[in-house]
Amino acid sequence: MAGWSYAQAQQAWQLKEEGYDFDEISVAMGVRATTAQKLVSRWEARLSIQAVWHHGLPVRIVNHLKENNIDSLESLQSVLAEGRLQKGMVPGIGAASIEQIRTWLESRNLKKECSEADKPVVVHLSPAMIEALDALAITEHEDRSEIIKRLILEADEHRKR
């Protein structure tokens, strides 16, 4: 790991957050899979990041869920499966929040499908930009990668006019 920068560790972590496995990260970064794992661990240690089950859900919704003892992915899925997460049943969680939760859960379950032509690319975004991208992903019902692809293609079409 000697010689690896924090920027490279952040790149590996970002790819992991996007859903890539360590083999895919290793190919994208030109390193071994074990090195990709170490880079991700290095970034997590630097930021003292602990994986949170609710990554991508709006903080307001997470807070209301926690206030109602829904404090894990498993408990959220259980409440949904049992029909106990409906408008008016959980204080602070209305129809719009329930729809956001369902969309978020669906996006977690989607398997990344990349053709051989697709290549992972790391994009450095500020925390505010990541928050905006996550909000866009929820409202547009698309994952981050698809939004970025679409925006790039739209910008390219606009440039060509």
TrEMBL record:
Residues 121-154 form the Ribbon-helix-helix protein CopG domain. Pfam families: RHH_1 (PF01402). InterPro entries: CopG (IPR002145). Signal peptide: none annotated. GO terms for biological process: regulation of DNA-templated transcription. This is Chaperonin GroEL (HSP60 family). It comes from Halomonas stenophila. The lineage of its organism: Bacteria, Pseudomonadati, Pseudomonadota, Gammaproteobacteria, Oceanospirillales.
